[in-house]
Amino acid sequence: MSNNDQTTVSVQAPPDDRATEFRAMTSEPEHYSGTILLVSAYAILWALLVAWLGVMWRRQTKLGARMHDLERALETATERAGAPDER
C-alpha cells in the first residue's frame, strides 16, 4: 500500500468507554476570563434596555403631543359647529 492509498478511519468509542466527567483542555490558555464575559454580557443587556426605554419614552412623548393636537382640533371643530361641549 502506498502513501496515497491511505485512508483515515474514524471509530467512535462505545458509550461505556467514553469519559463521563468534565476535563478542561490544557493545550491552550483561556482567551477571556469568565468574570469579564459575565460583566460584559450584563453591560450589553443594560445598554440595550436603556436604549429601548429611551426609544419608548420618545415615542410616548410624540404620542402625547399628537393626542394634545387632536384634542385641540376636536375642540376647535366643536366650537365652530356650535355643538355643546360633552365633557
Identify the notable features of this structure and list them briefly:
87 residues; mainly alpha; 1 helix; 0% strand
What percentage of residues falls in helices of 4 or more residues?
A: 55-70%
In N-to-C order, the SSE pattern is H
Low-confidence stretches: none
Mean pLDDT: 83
Distance between the termini: 99 Å
Assembly state of the chains shown: single chain
Give the CA-based shape. Answer: rod-shaped
Radius of gyration: 34 Å
What's the total number of strands? 0
- The percentage of residues in β strands lies in under 5%
User: Helix segment count?
Assistant: 1
Q: Which structural class is indicated by helix and strand composition?
A: mainly alpha
What characterizes the major β-sheet?
none
Compose a concise summary of this entry.
The protein has one helix at 34-81.
Structure overview:
The chain is mainly α and 87 residues long. The chain has a domain at 52-82. The chain has one helix at 34-81. The termini are far apart. The model has no long low-confidence stretch (mean pLDDT 83).
Write the layout of secondary structure elements.
Elements: H1 34-81
